[in-house]
Amino acid sequence: MSDTYKIRARLEGAEFEAEGPTGQVKADYEKFLNAVSQSSKAERKEAREVPQTEHNGDIEELDISSLSQIFKQDEGIVSLKFLPSGDGAERAADAALLLIYGYQVLQKLPDVMVTKLTKGLKDSGISFERFDRVIDSRKELVQKGGQRIGARYKLNNRGMREAVKLAKKLLS
């Protein structure tokens, strides 16, 4: 019987894969977990220090009590209590814009991981395969960074205005 250990893990956009002696692989995995933890702490600190959006003062923001009528938060995931009007693709794209807005305002995130947006859309009742295809019709309203599972989205100024308009429409 060999003393070989194999592991593959993906955590918060980082990947780890190793095969070898059990003790060495476990030690390397611990280093990986510590690095991801430190990176997450730095990102959370950076998110608190960065202004919630990079928009101009001419964009009206909704108060928290109004937002709580539209959004629900459960274990760090923001979802919609009800969906915007429109057909399937348009409704999904508007819901995605609203979710990005919700994360940016409620959780003060400068940009939002695609994994959180995917979970939030599914929790809201939207069925889809890939988030980038959902948001594609509104791509002029968002900025994207990263790739694949590490992608992050945030609203630009026009996107913020559109999200506020959509939120007001939901509240009326």
Describe this structure in words.
This protein folds into two domains: 4-49; 64-171, Arc Repressor Mutant, subunit A (Orthogonal Bundle), CATH 1.10.10. α3 (88-106) packs across α6. β6 and β7 form a beta hairpin. Mean pLDDT is 83; it is low at 46-58. The chain is an alpha+beta fold. The longest helix has 28 residues, at 22-49. The chain has helices spanning 22-49, 64-70, 88-106, 114-124, 131-135, 157-171; strands spanning 4-11, 14-21, 71-74, 77-80, 112-113, 142-145, 152-155. The strands form three sheets. Strands 5-7-6 form a three-stranded antiparallel beta sheet. The protein is elongated.
Write the layout of secondary structure elements.
Elements: E1 4-11, E2 14-21, H1 22-49, H2 64-70, E3 71-74, E4 77-80, H3 88-106, E5 112-113, H4 114-124, H5 131-135, E6 142-145, E7 152-155, H6 157-171
Antiparallel strand pairs: 1-2, 3-4, 5-7, 6-7
List keywords for this structure.
172 residues; alpha+beta; Arc Repressor Mutant, subunit A; 2 domains; three-stranded antiparallel sheet; two-stranded antiparallel sheet; 7 strands; 20% strand; elongated
